[in-house]
Specification:
Layout (H helix, E strand, L loop, with lengths): L4 H21 L3 H13 L3 H13 L4 H9 L5 H24 L2 H30 L1
Helix pairs in contact: 1-2, 2-3
């Protein structure tokens, strides 16, 4: 199946900006890739989530991880424990998501993103006020 040049460009931009944010602040898949696939390319919530998980399977984070590793900014023990639990959680989370309507999943996803964004804004302001 050949993709249209505009679709390829959109996918490249999604990947590029997702990669930048992943390397910069450790996010990308859920926050950038999933909504972008839904809004710009018309995928369903479930299709976008599955596609985002495919990206995680590929070694795209290797170079970003290497940069953090070189500067001693990776806690290997924590990461391995989280990764093991992440595998189990990902299995059960995907089963749960696929049993729900895409609209409900999208609503839950949006609420979580809004909550996290609010908490980051509040703690960021507190940190700025303490530093300056």
């Amino acid at each position: 199946m050949a993709l249209a040049p505009m679709t390829i460009l959109i996918l490249l931009l999604i990947g590029f900006f997702g990669g930048i944010l992943s390397g910069f602040v450790g996010i990308g898949g859920g926050v950038i890739i999933v909504p972008s696939l839904v809004f710009f390319l018309g995928l369903t919530q479930h299709q976008a989530q599955g596609t985002s998980l495919l990206v995680l399977v590929l070694p795209v984070v290797g170079l970003a991880l290497l940069n953090y590793w070189k500067t001693n900014n990776v806690n290997l023990s924590y990461g391995l424990i989280i990764a093991g639990a992440f595998v189990v959680g990902g299995f059960f989370g995907s089963k749960l998501s696929l049993r729900m309507s895409p609209g409900i999943v999208k609503l839950i996803f949006g609420i979580i993103m809004a909550y996290v964004a609010f908490q980051l804004i509040v703690t960021g302001i507190k940190t700025i006020n303490q530093d300056g």
